[in-house]
Amino acid sequence: MMYGEHNHHSDLTAFSDEALCLRAQSGSTEAEAELAVRYFRLVKSCARPYFLAGGDSEDLIQEGMIGLLSAIRGYTAERSLSFAAFARICVQHRIFTAIRSAASAVQELPMQTGEIAPLFDDNPDAAASASMPGSDPMVLVIGMEEHKERICALKKLLSPLEENVLSLYLEGYSLAEIARQLGKQIKSVDNALQRIKRKSAKLTERSQEQACSHKSCPPEE
Hints:
mainly alpha, 10 helices, globular
């Protein structure tokens, strides 16, 4: 079954996410599949900022789905988090880890300089993230502010159409869905997305150049 398709099991749609987790953890593949369908758009929305920064879309979505399955199998009500918050953190963590591993394989770790940090996630759940192993709340706060600044910088480069496409794309909508909502042809939406990617790449390149210039400056007396 393709997770993007709405093949919900009619007897499970009324269950809460948390109840479905319990069923999935007890061996119900139907409950696990229902959660996968419900959260497929979340996975796409978590992967797409990295895709715009140069990652492979399908690979990142696959990694995100692995993170979602980990969330389904590891969630407990005692975490004091909703499943939605826990799932978002697990998906983001899995994607983040996959990108860091890929980066280390080419001798450099871009995440250390923010090169491939998601540019557009301006609503991270810092409290939920802080419950994940190895996370630093202060880093999350700093990262949130950096994201907001970079979002604002990117939006200044976008046309009204591009800004609308970006907003819907990062929410996990397909090109066809975006075209339908905006009353545009799919090709027009795709062209706008490609322009956004190019502008995002230029923005990232500019940030890297500024970071390098700052590092090369002698310390002030």
